[in-house]
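pasting for ref
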Amino acid sequence: MAQRKITPAPGCHLSGYFHDRIAKTIKNDLYTKALVLEYKGRKLAVVANDLIWSTAEITDPAKALIARQCGIPAEAVLICATHTHTGPEIGENKLLSGVLSFGPDKQYNAELIRNIAETVTEACGSMFAGTLHAGATEAEGYAINKLRRLKDGRDIYDLTGNWTGNQKNIVGVAGPVDASIQTLGVRDSAQRLRAVIVNFAAHPNSAGFQGHEDVIWAEWPGEMARCISTIYGEDVPCLFLQGAAGDIDCRCGLDKERVGRGIAGAAVMATERAVQPIADPILNYRMETLKIPCCTRTPEMTREIDALRQGKQGYLEKAQIACYDAWDDNNKIMDVPVQCLRIGDVALVGLPAEIFTAIGLEIKRLSPASRTLIVEEANTQASIYVPTMDQAHRGGYGERPIQSRWLVAEAANLMTDAAIRMLHDIWNEK
């Protein structure tokens, strides 16, 4: 295992919203963290970055360097992001050219590629004999589904109805919550914990809501990792793998530090209860790149945008119009990588967007693994959100074509089917 800081300097542009934000201070550092496993001559690598998302412009060259330096195939390297909204912008915002005036810092991105590859290389150079321990528990009360169903069948991003005046029109929550925490601990021959993976689904989304508009920090996942390090040591990396949290926010009224401390407590409990090691830590992997069509402008979509132009425009409406005007991917086919790793009887499924919780639950339900970790924001950004097929046309944020959903509605089913197929292939392989 290895970790290194990837904190940008104050003055950088921050990512995650539809307006410009300039970092003034650093609340805590951002990290890239790597765990490399080897069993019977086969290696896998998992990398977690305190960033908003993953992009192919970063991960592809990083994986190429890792392959050359460590001999680990690109398909066996999962690179994901914790989805912090208070980290640097690393991708082009071509759809938001009408509301944002900046792009990524090319020098920072070049250094980031090197940092990711060198962290994995350092991990490869520090191999030791150890055991893997899979843990799990529930952490209820920290996450909520942020979408509400209205009487007319639409979804809306409004937890109470007070923001949009829909108090009387809300009939229920639009989707489920996955409160499970899953851990994978690495212990050395003295049974000291040397690294831990933590998987949980809850949107880090603090900037602008709690005085964090202009600070750099890793949000609640960073606070969780900090708490875990106070117990096990600063040299024990905690790799946070964001779960299927496309429609999941942290519970209202809980500041993000409290969320981080609560999830840390649950993760420590799950880690400490995982006494028995994985008996046969088989390592295997699959990656399939799906060809999925992007959304295409329709007359109905144009009428909706024209109506927005004529009416009172709020924050999201202005962004929706800007994205629509800049959209040039009609009839484009997007490369959508779906990745599956096997670690003994544990599976990791990497998906390249913010994934609605019901999709993750469906993959877990049909997975052959005893425990399946859904990892969003993995390897690249094929869309902002991927909602379930039945929710894709209900109009809520995360479901809107072009602004927050780049792929056709069938993308959820195609990605789910591919993940299930690959998992069963891996488990059936002798």
